[in-house]
Amino acid sequence: MSEDDQDLAAPSDKLVLIVEDDDAFMDFIEFIVKRQGFNVEKASDGEVGLWKARNLAPDLILLDLMLPKFGGFDVLKELQAPETINIPIIILTGASSEFAREEQLLAEPNVQEFLRKPVNPSELTALLHKTLSTGSA
């Protein structure tokens, strides 16, 4: 079995919602998530991301904080509502101004981790499996 074959995971019924406005970065994250066998739903702004979070009940949300229409901080605040509070969130950000708020963001009940861009694929892969309790990394 080649190393590439070992990287491909068996299909899963877990749904990961990626909320990210940078198309190239979203495609990169989608590739990593799908390679691990997870299903993906995407949103390129906070408004659509929040709607999908409420209506699709994903198993995990990968959330950028700098979003058009309805910003990531607003989305995060709305996701503290009873119907979405149990959806784990991994924050993805490249804005250095947000690094200072990392501790505050991690204090939110459903925020699992804070990843700085550029994201390390191995680190994201490990977090996906840890957060979704799939047991492989």
Count of DSSP helices? 7
What is the overall pLDDT average?
Answer: 89
Order of helical and strand elements: HEHEHEHEHHEH
Number of strands: 5
CATH superfamily: Response regulator
Order of the strands making up the biggest sheet: 2-1-3-4-5
Helical fraction: 40-55%
- Number of separate domains: 1
Low-confidence stretches: 1-6
The secondary-structure class comes to: alpha/beta
Largest sheet: 5 strands, parallel
What are the salient characteristics of this protein?
137 residues, 5 strands, Rossmann fold, 7 helices, five-stranded parallel beta sheet
Structure, explained:
This protein has 7 helices and 5 strands. It is an alpha/beta fold. The protein has one domain (3-130): Response regulator (Rossmann fold, 3-Layer(aba) Sandwich), CATH 3.40.50.2300. Strand 3 (60-64), helix 4 (72-78) and strand 4 (89-93) form a beta-alpha-beta unit. The protein is globular, with a radius of gyration of 14 Å. The model is unreliable at 1-6 (pLDDT under 50).
Question: Concise description?
Answer:
By secondary structure, the protein is α/β, with parallel strands linked by helices. It has seven helices and five strands, in the order H-E-H-E-H-E-H-E-H-H-E-H. Strand 1 (15-19), helix 2 (23-35) and strand 2 form a beta-alpha-beta unit.
Write the layout of secondary structure elements.
Elements: H1 3-7, E1 15-19, H2 23-35, E2 39-43, H3 46-56, E3 60-64, H4 72-78, E4 89-93, H5 96-99, H6 102-106, E5 111-116, H7 121-131
Parallel strand pairs: 1-2, 1-3, 3-4, 4-5
Helix pairs in contact: 3-4
